[in-house]
Specification:
N-(1-d-carboxylethyl)-l-norvaline Dehydrogenase, domain 2; eight-stranded mixed beta sheet; 286 residues; globular
Amino acid sequence: MPPDSLKRIAVIGAGTMGHGIAQVAAMAGYETRLTDTSPDSLAAAWSRIQSNLAGAVSRGKLTRAQADAAIALISPVAELSAAVRDADLVIEAVVEEMAVKQSLFRQVDAVIADETILATNTSSLSIARIAEGTKRPDRVVGMHFFNPVHIMKLVEIVTHAGCGESVVASARAAAERMGKTTILVRDTPGFASSRLGVALGLEAMRMLEDGVASAADIDTAMELGYGHPMGPLRLTDLVGLDVRLKIAEYLHRELADEQFAPPRVLREKVARGELGKKTGKGFYEW
């Protein structure tokens, strides 16, 4: 399939990342289907997409006609098989657990066409291992978007040893049509962005534990001293402390490197349900 021939995209998972991926896909002119096992999540995602587009119109970033055209291209679909059956590209954005992703790809594999590309939005897990859940490992690629998807410009294209060159080219072309800059990364734990970002975030947490500075001052150091748009602790709140903990545990296990050992403060906050913005409290009050 030529890189520019993709027409239909299915996004699985209507959470923080999935609804944003569906939005940018539709804004790029793709016929887009968004599916989730939870009807409430699907409805909430549809509402967030409409709100995001309305906000873009009010700020002059989009015309009303452009927003309406994007909305017309998105279909919330409750049934997985109906959402993915005739898609050219399926992008998975579900929970960051290997067994869940492998099981999902096995289900999708049973109903899609041979030439369909399967992409995972994992931020750290092995693409090759996720691909083991399919009959077509050569058609599986990583497309790691960043939150919030409709604003952040980067997509990591993650390739593994068995991945076809045309699949990589198609994934890059799709991401770039969505207005993203792509980088090509080898399948290794944490890829490029998560490995660096988590290392910085965990060190910031250790500094907080040691009383080096407050969370706000640590973040300000990186924002004003190094030009980061957001400090590592505020970013952790946005991503979710539970998500960061899972990634840190995975990197610590896979890389056998103590810099990825989750700090006590992270484990304690997750145990208390202080998961960041989504729960109203993390390293900050929201």
